[in-house]
Amino acid sequence: MSEKRYSICGMCTCRCPIMAEVENNEIRFLQGSPHFPAMKGAVCPRGAAGPALIRDRERPRNPMIRVGERGGGQWREVSWDEALDYVADKMKAAMDKYGARTVAFTDRGGPFRDMHQAFLRGLGTPNYCNHDSSCARNVQHAALSVTGMGRKAVSYDLKNARHVILQFRNIFEAVNVQEVNNLMDAMDNGCRLTVIDIRANISASKADNFFMIRPGTDYAFNLAVIRELLETTQYNVEYARLHIKDLDKLAAFVQPYTPEWAEAETGIPAHELRRFVRELAQAAPSVIWHPGWMAARYKTSFYVCRSIYIINALLGAIGAKGGLPLVSKPGDVGRKGLKKLTDLYPKPEEKRADGVGWRYKQFESGPGLTHLLYEAMDTADPYPVKAYICFRHDPLMAFPEPERLKEIFSKLDLMVSVTFTWSDTAWFSDVVLPLSPYLERESVLACKNGLKPYFFRRQRVVEPRFDTRAEWEIWAGLAKRLGLDELAFESAEDIWNFQLEGTGVSVGDFDATGKVGLTDTPQYRAMEDLTFKTPSGKIEMISEKLEALDIPSLLPYESPEKPEEGSFRLTFGRCALHTQGHTVNNPMLFEQMPENVLWINSGSAETLGIADGDTVAVTQNGYTETIRAKVTDFIHPEAVFVIHGFGHRLPPESRARNRGLADNKFMKGGLDIWDKVGGAVAYQEHFVKVRKV
Ligand SMILES: Nc1nc2c(c(=O)[nH]1)N[C@H]1C(S)=C(S)[C@@H](COP(=O)(O)OP(=O)(O)OC[C@H]3O[C@@H](n4cnc5c(=O)[nH]c(N)nc54)[C@H](O)[C@@H]3O)O[C@H]1N2
Ligand SMILES: Nc1nc2c(c(=O)[nH]1)N[C@H]1C(S)=C(S)[C@@H](COP(=O)(O)OP(=O)(O)OC[C@H]3O[C@@H](n4cnc5c(=O)[nH]c(N)nc54)[C@H](O)[C@@H]3O)O[C@H]1N2
Ligand code: SF4
Ligand SMILES: [Mo]
């Protein structure tokens, strides 16, 4: 007899709720949880490849300590006790010499962080960073500057939307299952879809409007949209009166940015822009102009994201049903939130090594800026950072200039990788602590804020096949060795009981569906009651915080650099079959898509004598890799494009090894090229040359 178990997918960052049917420690069937209607019982291809991950022997199966050179690939398999003793001893030695602040920790973000953040607080180090400076930091800071609230303070009410605009957001390939299903339902009910992209992706193939934009000119398009909305009074006048501050300053600022001016920058005809603005006004306020996700692209991407929040505000969409309604937290529906392990310890008073909050006052301090942490590791300014734990994070694949990063990591006394697949970062570490894949482990309980907030649980679906452990077991093991007895939990259930104290919910309540809802009805706030967390309580066109730091709230447009003859801006993104860099070696997904290809415009290809399917060499600063060309009309001539995550070179990954091209290796100087107001690395400020081999 099979048993049904509810858990949370971990193949990507979306954490879809899943249901597994299990018999004799084998997964017989895996599907989207039937208790979440928007899952429609489905998981995406990567979610379906979870069972292949657990059966894969080409993943770290035992704790390992490096012997020989860093990165040399010689390992000694050790017991968990030996591995944890080793890590704890090295951490103690570094802390004795340099103080607790010498410990740094990076992770992939997300809702399951409470225990390791508590662990870091317990040690007394402020140096927790998540990956976000390589992803959505610009969006987060843009949201804060306009609404005073983070990007997750609103949700995207796709199901009820009447017009959705995707600008550098490819929802049908960079998938979140529930979002995709909700958008498809909305489209069945007449919702329009507009895609603004440098190439025709799958989302574009389903769109009502597709605008192929010149890479790096999105801001020009958006400024002209703002001008047109204001000039023709198609914005929501009543909403603006109630909720928007300094609209007059915005109107004066956008004066020069006419649709005709934008056409010359972007290549999108002025009459098309005008028609599009009329469509927006008709659908408002049930419009979602998605503010972007992977917006770590240009040096001024922050201002593009800001312009998107401003447009949403002008349409009255922020707070609206079918737009971007404000989410509720447990407290908003009269419930108590999960008790935090982090509250066991005081917040460390030390300054952060990345300078966030003191050297760089414009940034929110929580997750810091990882690339600046690396700079501190390199320079020992403001102080030495010598012990580094990398959890669920692969910076050697995810940040530019891996060779330079390796030099920086070589200065560490200790580098630990906690991971469920091999990665360049794990391979370069001193210790690999093999994490059980998500189907074989539990996480701390988490809360999802939203229109209907709820608690949810990732539980072990099957027992680990190899000598791997859950993250809580690893943190508890280290906590015990480092004198943090409060965190030395003996079971996941003990942690869950701690978290649930005072909430009126018990662990058993999760058994039936995997979640515990905190309210039955969606909480849409009345529009006239909306208040924002800015100083004025309104949506601010001019941010006092930025102005006080001499940073403009409204940045005049500057045209992006044009590539020289024969060279192209290197752009990248996701596909539905892989997650970042860590699924290429998954046996099922590898079979579906073993390598990436280089999208290149037909006209440019013809000039270079490149035909579809040819092998081409891509070069930057003397570094070259080869890849097959996909010659197409559907990409802007200034750009070439690859799916990120390929070009693995690690010996233990027999399938992924030497297949495709690694985009992050074509970003010379890239660790220093970042958005100074949004905080994120500017990954698309790089050019490559392409030639036929
Ligand atoms: N050049 C270039 N660089 C990029 C990008 C790009 O497109 N091009 N994309 C950027 C973006 S958007 C992001 S978010 C970052 C991502 O880069 P990272 O933040 O490094 O995230 P992942 O590649 O997902 O790597 C997570 C690592 O954790 C391990 N892992 C352990 N447990 C889990 C788990 O439960 N779930 C998952 N998913 N992994 C686990 C995986 O095996 C993998 O090695 O890279 C960024 N860097
Ligand atoms: N299948 C799958 N889904 C994922 C992930 C995954 O790895 N695989 N990763 C998750 C993560 S961590 C993230 S951050 C999100 C990312 O989600 P998205 O940000 O939606 O995904 P991307 O594919 O990085 O980028 C979206 C689009 O931006 C376009 N683009 C590039 N440059 C420009 C430009 O200058 N202007 C415009 N207008 N468009 C441009 C690309 O062509 C691409 O189609 O996806 C999440 N979901
Ligand atoms: S989108 Fe796919 S891979 Fe990501 S959590 Fe959902 S099912 Fe898993
Ligand atoms: Mo991301």
TrEMBL record:
Residues 2-58 form the 4Fe-4S Mo/W bis-MGD-type domain. Transmembrane segments: none annotated. Coiled coil: none annotated. The keyword Glycosyltransferase does not apply. One of its GO terms (molecular function) is molybdopterin cofactor binding. InterPro entries: Asp_de-COase-like_dom_sf (IPR009010), MoPterin_dinucl-bd_dom (IPR006657), Mopterin_OxRdtase (IPR006656), Mopterin_OxRdtase_4Fe-4S_dom (IPR006963), Prok_Mopterin_Oxidored (IPR050612). Keywords: 4Fe-4S, Iron, Iron-sulfur, Metal-binding, Molybdenum, Oxidoreductase, Signal. Belongs to the prokaryotic molybdopterin-containing oxidoreductase family. This is Thiosulfate reductase. It comes from Desulfonema ishimotonii.
